[in-house]
Amino acid sequence: MSHLVAYLGPKIDLHSLLMTPEAGPYQQALAARRGGPCADGFGIGWRRKHRPWRYVRDCPIWRDFNLEALSHNLRASHWLCSVQDSAESGDEVSLFNTQPFMDERFLFVHHGFVDNFLATLKPACHEYLSPEVAAGLRGSSVSEYLFAMIRQRLRDPDNLDIGPALQDVLSTLEISLRNLNASLNTVICDDAKIIAARQACNQACAPLYFNVNDARFPNAMLVASRPLTESPHWRL
Questions:
Q1: What angle do CA 169, 173, 177 make, to 5 degrees?
Q2: CATH code for the structural domain at 3-224
Q3: CA 235 to chain centroid
Q4: How far apart are CA 159 and CA 142, in angstroms?
Q5: pLDDT tens digits, residue range 43-88?
Q6: Alpha-carbon distance 197 to 59, whole Å?
């Protein structure tokens, strides 16, 4: 199963968020190692000097022997981390499909799938996207195309903020995908906030939790695909 975690708060090192928590992405990936999931790449996004950066690998997270040292030395007040299971999304394993995605403003993760994406939603996306946005597509995943649709919506003349733009895209997809199964849990971060959406079509929504009162991460906002800690303040 894929994992994601987003953090906004006082500066912390990556190790304390990604690797230390018993139910965090790294430990969960290790626990699942025998069964094979969560072995299809991982990525880390953060913000520094008001712009996003990322580090992505198309190998299991436990095989990156540089990550331990990096995680102790990278510090930020914004984090967005993803550990991927391609069996869940149906995407090809490649660096181009490894999340989080980013542009000059945003970090973005989508965990989920769209049934028969290549034959259904992908052609419709190309009709919707401008040549400038479409030219930035490098992979083949539904997640990257979803991010492209959001970026396209932000270019429209009504100048929507990121929250309403995400809501508008997901509402459009709900209509377009009314006869298909889809899971559309999404997190997008800018310099000041985390926007998270939990949505599905024709099936139950996958869980997505938030916590703004975790003693382990004081004065921070957390969003995660499963609770990182034993704090009683995690909410769907």
A1: 175
A2: 3.60.20.10
A3: 18
A4: 25
A5: 999 999 989 999 999 998 999 999 999 999 999 999 999 998 766 6
A6: 27
